[in-house]
Amino acid sequence: MQTTYIETQQISFQDFKNQILEDYKLGRISREMSYLGRREVLTGKAKFGIFGDGKELPQLAMAKVFRNGDFRSGYYRDQTFALAINALTVESFFAQMYADTSVEREPASAGRQMNGHFATRSLNEDGSWKDLTAQKNISSDISPTAGQMPRLLGLAQASTIYKSVKFDGSEKFSREGNEIAFGTIGDASTAEGHFWETLNAACALQVPMIVSIWDDGYGISVPTKNQRAKADISEMLSGFQRKEGENQGCEIIQVKAWDYPALLDAYARAEHFARTESVPVVVHVVDVTQPQGHSTSGSHERYKNEARLAWEAEFDGLVKFKEWILNYSIEIDGKEEVIATAEELDAIDEDAKKAAKSGQKTAWDNYQGAIKELIQSIVPLVENLKGQNTEVETALTHFNKLVTKAKKDVFHLARKTLLATRGTNSAERNQLMQKYNEVSEIEKDNYSSHLYSQSEWKAENIQEIKPVYSDSSEDVDGRVVIRNNFDKIFEKYPETLIFGEDTGNIGDVNQGLEGMQEKYGALRIADTGIREATILGQGIGMAMRGLRPIAEIQYLDYVLYCLQGMSDDLATVQYRTKGGQKSPLIIRTRGHRLEGIWHSGSPMAGILNLSKGILVLVPRNLTKAAGFYNTMLQADEPAIIVECLNGYRLKEKQPDNLGEFTVPVGKIEVTKEGKDVTLVTYGSTWRIVTEAANELEKLGISAEVIDIQSLIPFDLSHEIAESVKKTNRLVVIDEDVEGGTTGFILQQILEKQKAFRYLDSDPLTISANDHRPAYASDGDYFSKPSTDDMVEKIYALFNETNPQKYPAIF
């Protein structure tokens, strides 16, 4: 096991002196970056600025105990820490401020995130994993200021898992589980539920996690006393303090942001607890100042009085650090030794200003150079057309008058020119069109790539393997199919684990994991508390560290607790890092067609609209669900798989090739052929639609039934349009609210697949009522589409076109 900072600090005075001065210089460079960054916004060269000034010393101390393989999950104040672990340079800091789209110049997000959002690159260019134990790691930041906490739990728990779990390639992700996950959060955001849920779970699980709370007394303008029950978060957390001899709780360390030696000691102790004892630690850093206020959006002079501002100037960490250095002396071999003179520190201050300015200038020149290249490739081609059209001349004149030019200005000029010269077929216009198409593809990649995986492990690339059946294949309950398939999965993939409410000991509420904990252990088949947001977070963090977690959310209705993390974090991981990180988490849930307001809802439209970036898979039975698990465990993308809640006791034939067969994503299945109308549905509703189709046959209507199976991605081969081309009528049926998922499905079929061309009748949607379903079987009947509803509404389509053959029912 690696030794801790406490155990290794036996150094000479010269080394000690050098470390102090290096810290001072780095702190000053970071501060100058903050000052200069604010000026860049106020002069219009950058759009927004939010900085880490005032937090330099605690971040320098934290960096000293941050080792290769460790992870940070934080928010946008940690620039000094990122500098200290070499995850950030002055140039890349300003490149992010300018939204430079170069991955080489801005590796954290390629210009997609506003400044202060840090990340290291976990992946090679082909999407394969780097050796994460050979580098210091930052999981990509998000702006919701407690949203980083659930992920932190998973990053920490991965170390616990790796103490026992080994698999081919696991050495890239952990060295015997010795890594710590570091989290950072502003004190005001400790009022958020995500903070409390994460800390509670960490204390229960006993994971190696250090949470730093930067306490500057305010949440933007709102003072701490209005944020929490107690102004002192350490006092509030006192009940979490672990007791001697108990394997619960955490350690709490409070330290002042301006006390350099105390900060070193605090983080050394925190590392020791977390790395050697696997105990979560809270480091409450108080007396933090914020010299420039919250951000460039406003001034802190509006809400801080003169006394507070004077105190902040006096207790600025770098001011106090300078005082401490100048007052430090020690006698060694009869000679008084000092760290530095005032003149030497002043020289460091000047060097820091020069370093910040030099890095800013380089970043700006690089950013502007890319725009100039674009201008040079487009504008001469536009100029070739100005003699042919006065509108082009006007557009050029306007463009040339712009003081600063952005990419959007160049594209606007090109598009205005192409619009003005429409209908013209000339070599000059064709040249412009060709170049415009070329640069458009580049910018499409710059701004819109990697929402989904672009690697060879993309889910769409996973080969379909059909279920194999024989004379000996048994008819069993659906839950037996899923259970036995999970058995094969856990045997085949030692890196796979599952956790959730009632998942472990009782084998989930529907017995789909019966006996799995007994066979594979409580570490891999685990129960959790009732805390959906951090169940999701556990999965996100563990998947970022190379494990293959399945996070079980007991019912689809309760996925709403996870929706913020799904939308803001999981769905955007690959996108916001432009392929630099991934989190191939599988969310397991079950829903639809049970009974009661909170056990039979259908928030599918919300999931679809808010979680683009996550595959949404809606199998109609448990065999299909098992196939999707087998598919996604070979893929490197996140997915939610919604099992049919009413399918666990229904009989299915169990495939002979459990753990091997796959269901392809983005592929529909025609489960009943027909010639008069296409019925499109998914999930539990499929059974009822099939019943309705059989009833319609008796009425002389031949209905083709299509199971979508995969909402995202959706019908990649456009097979539904081919069905509509044959039947000339389309009905979309589900149990979401009106205009919900059916609206999405119609847009895909009518707009993307152009199936409107084949319709002889208006497209019809049959959805549930807009309210939540009422309780019991009658509540389901009157709340959601029944067989009767479907038969009557579909029959009415034919009554409209041929009332003699299909006389009205009512």
Structural account:
This protein folds into 4 domains: 13-340, 3-Layer(aba) Sandwich (Rossmann fold), CATH 3.40.50.970; 367-448, no CATH class; 459-653, Rossmann fold (3-Layer(aba) Sandwich), CATH 3.40.50.970; 671-801, Rossmann fold. The protein has 27 helices and 24 strands. The mean pLDDT is 96. By secondary structure, the chain is α/β, with parallel strands linked by helices. 41% of the residues lie in helices and 12% in strands. Its cofactor is thiamine diphosphate. InterPro entries: DH_E1, THDP-binding, Transketo_C/PFOR_II, Transketolase-like_Pyr-bd, Transketolase_C. This is Pyruvate/2-oxoglutarate/acetoin dehydrogenase complex, dehydrogenase (E1) component. E1 component of the 2-oxoglutarate dehydrogenase (OGDH) complex which catalyzes the decarboxylation of 2-oxoglutarate, the first step in the conversion of 2-oxoglutarate to succinyl-CoA and CO(2).
Radius of gyration: 30 Å
The chain-level mean pLDDT equals 96
Query: Low-confidence spans: pLDDT under 50, at least 5 residues?
Result: none
Summed up, the domain count is 4
| CATH class category of the largest domain | Alpha Beta
Structural class: alpha/beta
**What about the largest sheet?**
7 strands, mixed
Widest sheet, order of strands: 13-12-14-15-17-16-22
Helix content bin: 40-55%
Q: What is the overall silhouette?
A: globular
Number of strands: 24
User: Which second-level CATH architecture of the largest domain applies?
Assistant: 3-Layer(aba) Sandwich
Cofactor: thiamine diphosphate
InterPro entries: DH_E1 (IPR001017), THDP-binding (IPR029061), Transketo_C/PFOR_II (IPR009014), Transketolase-like_Pyr-bd (IPR005475), Transketolase_C (IPR033248)
Domain Transketolase-like pyrimidine-binding: 476-650
Protein name: Pyruvate/2-oxoglutarate/acetoin dehydrogenase complex, dehydrogenase (E1) component
